[in-house]
Every structure is written in structure tokens, then in C-alpha cells.
Amino acid sequence: MRSDIVPGGFFPDYELPDHTSKPRKLSELQGEDPLILTLSRGHYCPKEHQQHLELAAFYPKIAVAYTQMVTIATDDHHTLQEFRASIGAQWTFLSDPSEPFRRISTSRSTPTPSIIR
Predict the structure, then answer these.
(1) Could you tell me if residue 25 is inside a domain?
(2) How far is CA 81 from CA 39, 54, 117, in A?
(3) Is residue 73 part of a domain?
(4) Other beta carbons within 10 Å of 98
(5) Which tens digits make up the pLDDT trace of 34-50?
(6) How far apart are CA 13 and CA 24, in angstroms?
(7) Residue 93 resides in a domain
(8) pTM, full prediction
(9) 3 state SS of 25
């Protein structure tokens, strides 16, 4: 991880296109609620697909707790829509195909969900 992204700290307020191609800021999606941010390699990775299926099954409990969820994936717009639909996700997916995790991580380890404030 980058030295400026630490537990309990503030996550950078990225603006990326969502699954409908609308530019969205993380702060707008979060509002006043906690936010679970998932970084994803994309639809092609079977581990990511399985993880997101499990998140989709758990999502109703997350929503009841007034918690927002966002996935940033390396997929292009059309692939992102397909990925989101294939798992039945009800949360926002953001597309970042040009800078896959370079903004966030300096390692190539498997991304995991993070709770940010």
C-alpha cells in the first residue's frame, strides 16, 4: 500500500465512470455512511467472480446497516456491466481500465475489501 493510505485514514476521492458511464466520486457514493470499497482485477479472474458472488449474497445485510459499497474494477464499460449483472450486484461498480490499481497499490497482491471513512 501507499504510505498515505493507512487504516483509519481518509481514502483519496477518486472520480471514475460507473457501470452506466456516469462519472462518480467516491465521496458522492459514500455520503454520510460507511463505505466498503472493493478493488477488483475484473471479470476474468475466477477468484474475483466468486468473491463478488459472496458479496452479492451478503449485500442485503450491508444495505440494512446503512453502509455503502463500491467496486473499482479494471474492466472497460461493457465488460463492467456484464460482470456486475453476472453476479447480481446491486451496488455501484466503477471502471478504471487505464490505471489498474497503480493509483492505490504499489504491490501486485490480491486486492481485498476495505472499509474506509
Answers:
(1) no
(2) 16, 18, 27
(3) yes
(4) 9
(5) 888 888 888 888 898 89
(6) 10
(7) yes
(8) 0.79
(9) strand
